[in-house]
Specification:
about 280 residues, mainly alpha, about 70% helix, globular
Length: about 280
Amino acid sequence: MPDDSVLEVVFASVQIPTMPQAIQKISALLRDPESGMPDVAAEIARDPPLAIQVLRIANSAHYGLEEPVMDIERAAMVLGIRALHDIVLRAAVIAEFQDVKAAPGFSLEGLWRHSIFTGELAQTMWGLCTRPPAIGPSDFYACGLLHDIGRVILLDSRHEEYVAVLDEARSKGVPSSVVEEQRFGFSHTQVGSVVALMWKLPKPVQHAIEHHHGPRSRVEASLSVALVSLCDHIARKVEQGAQLGAKGLLGHPACSLGGIHAQALEQVIGTAQARYSQLEV
């Protein structure tokens, strides 16, 4: 979590959105031992636009259903409650920011594709760890989905200034976070960490969002940070069409901290391009 001085500047500079109501309600139902699949499905169905998006995602190539599902309860039964929760998170977060104004040379759809892909990779990597992480697969999906949410919020809250930040970063060939720090006194990763804090997400999620770009000492000190850092790196390389090999990634702290073996990593890399090409926002 950012220190108090940075928190004060962030709160004074940008509008931090509350967690979408749909996520709050679904999460509460999932924690309630007396609630079941029909309760969760009924809650989603109360929000028709959300229900449409949930079914669209559930029927996408990523989930590989043999037959399309036409109602939420059936989707929950086929995919499982954890997958349904992740789909709701994805649909609700993207819907929350659907009216954000675009910027020249900055693709919001591209950002969401990258974020979804990073979340899916992080969830997969969780399953490869022979040293169990402190948080579960859905938390890692949230880490990936939200790791760049600060960029969307800055574009929304400080549009003209953030467009100038993006232009300067491109012209100088430096990461946007460098220019963000210079102009705002904080970066998009710190804004994202504040979102995770306000949404009461677990501390490892907050830390992973804040430090996935570094510093190196933070990446080496935490498996959750390291995994999101690695998945962000893999996602960007895949998006650029670059060649990846397990050998070149085994030196990443995530592999030693999580006990990830070369063969398992190679399998993820081998399917990454196909998974990305099938991904829909």
